[in-house]
Amino acid sequence: MKNISSNVRFAVCFFIIHLVLSIMTMSLSIVFAEDTAESKKELLPIQVNADNVEYIKEKEIVRGTGDVVINFKGVTLRAEQITVNLVTKDAYADGNVRFYQGDTLYTADHAYYNFDSEVGRFEYTNGRFKPFYLFGSIVKKKDFTKEETKYTEYHVEDGYITTSDYILPDYKLTASSARIIPNDKVLLKNIVLRLGKVPVFWFPFWYFPLNTAEAPFTSVPGKSGRWGYYLLNSAQIYRSEKLKVRALLDWRSDRGAGGGAEGEYKFDPKAFGEFKTYFIKDRNFEEYDVKADGTARLRKDLKKDRFRVSWEHEHRVSPEIRMLSELNVQSDKQIIDDFFKEEYGRQSQRPNFFDITKANEAYQFEFFAMPRFNSFFDVLERLPEASFTKKRNEVYDTGIFYESDVRAGNYRFKFDADENDFDALRFSTLHKASMPFFLWDFMNFTPYLEGRTISYSEMRAGSEKTRGVFAMGFDSSFRVSKIYNAESEAWNIHGLRHIFEPAMDFRLVRTNYGPERVYQFDQIDAPIHDTFVSFRFRNVLQTKRQKERYYYVKKNEKSAEMVKHRGFDEVSVDLIDFSISFDVFPSKARRDTFSIGHISSDFENISAMDFFFRRNIALGSPFVRSTKDEYLSELLVEMKFAPFEWFETRVQYRYDPHDRQLEELKWVFSFFNTDKISWDIATTFNLGGSTQLGHTFNYRFNADWRVSISHVLDFNRENSAGGARKLQRYVLVKDLHEWEMALTYMDRGYERGREVVDRSFFVIFYLKDYPTVRFKVGN
Questions:
Q1: CA-CA distance, 653 to 638, in Å (whole number)?
Q2: DSSP line for 371-424
Q3: Helix, strand, coil distribution of the chain in percent, nearest 5
Q4: Which tens digits make up the pLDDT trace of 165-192?
Q5: Does 167 share its domain with 62?
Q6: Cα distance between residue 334 and residue 329, in whole Å
């Protein structure tokens, strides 16, 4: 014990001595560094370059006249006359004064500047700090340090700022005082917005960030058929590197007043997110809903307290662990559509979920929960779902690759009508082995075996609650190409390369019973007793063309000036890219659209059709009438044709060869696609749904004027035998140097239990350097 106590005492004494010595060493180092820096500061001379230089030895003053230039500590001071004290570093400049520091430039009649303290005063000053120009009767400069970072600050008295580079700016923000921190922010007090010399608005305070194009304040007045007269306002009430918050305050004559807050946060590089809130006491609410049986309900002129709360968060706990969560609560189904149209266009139904995933090269573990907080939406709840995925990896050096997936969860399909809900516990395992190799030294060939077992707590029919699915097959593909020496200046063809990529996949699926006996939650429940061969044939025709590019090089070895040069790169261009995909079935069998998942397609309504069929199974209709009881599936055709640089067309369609009918089509024509002119024409067709034809035409008359025209026609609307106008929009844009003015007329029709047409005409002014600063006037 004595030895232990003595060792402890020795360690404590050693630590104290070490700490004292460290502090003394640091102190001596700091003092020495300060003395060294101070001595260097004193020894660092100021050099004055001028046409005439006079040195007054008694006063340690240098006076320069003519073109006087002083470069010192990253600052350049230039004037017709400068007097500088070599001891105090005080400089007085007169006549055509120019002050440079980084990207900041000031011109003044008179200036005082201390090269030691870096404090200055400029009189009758014009300045430039991107993107603004500045004028001030008096401008004072000083430096300060915040969180070990050095900042330069300018105080302006009785001046203005503008983004206009005209001598007489078209607009300006005059202020009694301004505080400018380059590359950070501008703070103005007692501001008047002037168009020319005419005062338009007064603001007590305004803030502009200089490190982002996001506006600190926006105000949008106007008139709408759905809102009446309105005024939409947003203001940035807090901004830092970790948190940005904006307040919303809106007024609509037909709907009432509303407001909220939205913001972004990044308290840590690994933890960040955003939030949105909004509330409105709506006095003209229209409730519109479509039920499962297809009937629609519309109730008008309702008074309702409406709100939305949204929160998204991501936390990267470690390189292997990521946590995601999203919360979306709203008062009704239509609030996003009514007041946040752009957001609704991106995603009409926002989910609620929590997800934590741990993943590396070998495996992935995921815990996922998705509840329903909004009772008016159809949602597949997962409360919760846990999964473990063993990623595809080679088993030792055998050439065999193994992968597996195990997942368990509590699933509940909840519809807006509660009587249609269904739920079950489900546990599934998937094991798959594959062995890729080259066949005949040119073909990629991958045979595989896979087996899945699925156990349910509840069934639609039958007593056996465990389902087995066995599958085997192979994937194969190869690629060949041939080059042709073809030349055509008219078609801009310089050599041709034909690429042929065929692929054939075989798959045999066996299961102990069909999907009609189990609840359909997702694709795990969809497999049927099936055998098929999938074919895909792709043909690509390429050529080489010269592509113009610009690059910068140094003017010469001694100069840092960069000179712009024009050059050309030879690139490969696809003239034609054509592919066709289909499945062949050895025997006829009843197959439904929702269970055909081997044809890849990005058609928008595929997921909706999949949901539709699963919903019908849930409602007691296990199969919808289908004509797919044939040997050949639908054909999926995709093609891109771009023979010229000014023309391109893309087409994608699904065709049923048995019924000889087109089931879905997308066709887009693109012309010109330059800064001068562009024209896109598109059509979409869905069997049993809408058929639309639309186009957008853009043309720039000159540097100041351009126009955009858009139309969308719907040919399957009720009471429209010859076609119904769904949208037309005309936009005329005038470049006002630092502003852009857009005159817009829009006529839009939509369905809310009745035909509704919303016509609007408005003028929007955009500030180029701050695109979110806009003034909108009109309907």
A1: 7
A2: ----TTS-EEEEEEEEEEEEEEEE-TTSS-EEEEEEEEEEEEEE-SSGGG-EEE
A3: 10, 65, 25
A4: 787 888 888 998 888 887 778 888 888 8
A5: yes
A6: 12
Nearest alpha-carbon partner for 125 in 141, 102, 114: 141
Q: Are residues 32 and 75 in the same domain?
A: no
31: which 2 tokens?
Answer: 């003092």
Q: Are residues 93 and 28 in the same domain?
A: no
Q: Which of 164, 190, 217 is the last residue of a domain?
A: 217
Residues 33 and 168 in one domain: no
SS3 365: strand
Token output for 635? 């054909």
Q: Are 543 and 524 in contact (CB under 8 A)?
A: no
Residue 305 lies in a domain: no
DSSP 169: -
pTM value is 0.68
Mean pLDDT for all residues in the chain = 80
Given 151, 182, 217, the domain boundary residue is 217
Establish if 543 belongs to a structural domain: no
Half-sphere exposure of 99 (CA within 13 A, CB side): 31
Is there a single domain that holds both residue 19 and residue 160? no
Q: What percent of the chain has pLDDT over 70?
A: 81
pLDDT digits 0-9 by tens, 363-383 = 999 999 999 999 888 888 999
The count of other CB atoms within 10 Å of the CB of residue 245 is 16
Instruction: Look up residue 683 and give its amino acid.
Output: T
Q: Tell me the CA distances in angstroms from 374 to 274, 416, 424, one per residue in order.
A: 20, 9, 21
Pair (55, 136) in one structural domain:
yes
Quote the CA–CA distance of 728 and 468 in Å, as a whole number: 54
Same domain (yes/no): 83, 156: yes
pLDDT of residue 28: 37
Confidence band for 353, pLDDT divided at 50, 70 and 90? very high
What pLDDT score does 675 carry? Answer: 85
Q: Look at residue 621 and tell me if it is in a domain.
A: no
User: What residue type is 7 in one-letter code?
Assistant: N
Please say if the pLDDT value at position 35 is more than 80: no
Please tell me the total count of domains within the chain.
2
In a domain, 1, yes or no: yes
**How distant, in Å, are the alpha carbons of 540, 642, 645 from that of 575?**
8, 5, 10
Looking at residue 40, what is its pLDDT?
Answer: 42
Which residue, among 140, 112, 135, has the nearest Cα to 124 in the 3D structure? Answer: 135
- Name 450's bridge partners: 432, 471
Give the pLDDT mean for 420-432: 91
Is residue 62 a contact partner of residue 84, using CB atoms and an 8 Å limit?
Answer: yes
Give the domain CATH number at 117: 2.60.450.10
Place of tokens 């997936």: 405
Rounded mean pLDDT, 613-624: 37
The answer to whether residue 731 scores a pLDDT higher than 70 is yes
pLDDT tens track for 286-340: 776 555 455 555 666 577 899 999 999 999 999 999 999 999 999 988 899 888 8
Structure confidence at residue 130 (pLDDT): 75
Boundaries of domain holding 129: 48-217
Residue 445 has pLDDT above 60, yes or no: yes
Query: Could you write out the three-class secondary structure of 222-266?
Result: EEECCCEEEEEEEEEEEECCCEEEEEEEEEECCCEEEEEEEEEEE
Whether 759 shows a pLDDT value over 70: the answer reads yes
Q: In degrees to the nearest 10, what's the CA dihedral of 42, 43, 49, 54?
A: 70
